[in-house]
Amino acid sequence: MTISVGSIVRGLRLGLLVCLALAASSRTAFAESGSACAKADAACPFVSGLLAQREGYGRAATGGEGGEVVTVTSPADAGPGTLREALAHARGPRWIRFGSDMTITLLSQLRVPGNVTIDGRGHRVTLLDYGLGIYGSNNVIVTHLTIDGRLRTFSQAINVANHSTNVWIDHLDLSRFADRLLNVKNGSTDVTVSWVKFHDDDKVMLLNNITSKDLFANYDRDKGARVTVHHCYFLDTVQRNPRAQFGTFHIFNNLLENWDFYGMSFSLQARALVEGNIFSNVSKRDCVEPEFFPTVEGVKASYCKYIADAPSRSALPNGGSDQRNFERTAKLYAGGERDYRAYLSVKDNLYLRDAKAVLQSYLPEKVPAPPYCYTYDAPTPKLADEIRRFAGNTDGPAPGTPCH
Predict the structure, then answer these.
(1) Which secondary-structure segment (H or E) carries 281?
(2) Where are the domains of the chain?
(3) Quick check: 168 and 196 in contact, CB under 8 A?
(4) Could you give the 3-state DSSP secondary structure of residue 352?
(5) Which DSSP string corresponds to 134-168?
(6) Which residues are catalytic?
(7) Are 270 and 342 a contacting pair, CB within 8 Å?
(8) Which CATH superfamily is domain 39-390 in?
(9) What is the mean pLDDT of residues 81-95?
(10) pTM, whole model, 2 decimals?
């Protein structure tokens, strides 16, 4: 039997149309399911279905559970029916959904109060130029959004700061912010970051921030930070995937692919369990950075020249990001109680293509075991493919039953 090329092409087109139709049908069905829920209680399917997926240090986040359900109907920056209005008028628990696909060009950062869920499931929702500020807020969930800074503003896609607690950041697509894509800092703690796609950015994620004069000036405030990062996809970034100091961190089952400068960084007595991550990089590839990354210092930054050696920097040497400043200010730490290195428990990580291992365990007995059970996958090429497919603002596979 002879099969023509035209028949094959028509078959592929038909298959693609069927897939797109099924995806659209799935999104529509989700948007309609639970639409009659006036209150975001446990009996509402879109509430219970999401909360069942919580894991990690942010697993206690309840968001807008028990509150009113509010639907965003306008893609304007502000005014009736907008996301900004829905956030500004939250006086108690509030579960925010969207009435349609929409792209919202923001003129300033959105502030997210406590006891709020921003739930983009069921529609394709994109925020442009600015993102979300979570300041001093407790119980916040943000899921299924795309946030693209377009390198236009010195801001962050998600900024968790000022003693915020119980925050869950899930299934987001974050890219192109001139500052950072994600911060967790200034006394914030109990945060989970899951299934997020970070891409096309320079300084991606900062977990706790430091001062240049006294690196440990905020140690007592920030050592209590606890953050879980799992099943995230870092693609075509430059550095800080993440960069972490002081606090307690659980970094597992993430995929780092084609960083231009370095992958991860840990320092200044952070306590980090780094397990089951996948590092993949090649030394000979095209640079996909923009002409330059803008910086607050006014420097036009480009890292293309580092690509050839990038696979050997899956991470910086333990403490490497802060060793020079630590030694320069050594007189402040004469008591010997401070260390520029992090306490690390490193195990079961996978290195693909040209990527090389750098991180090694250091005083792992100082790294606390996670006080929760969690869904852990052995690091394999199959897991890498799953993260590529499902991290980001995607519907993803049907969730399993995470343990708590």
Answers:
(1) strand 278-281
(2) 39-390
(3) no
(4) strand
(5) EES-EEEEEEEEEEE-TT-SS-EEEEEESS-EEEE
(6) 240
(7) yes
(8) Single-stranded right-handed beta-helix, Pectin lyase-like (2.160.20.10)
(9) 97
(10) 0.92
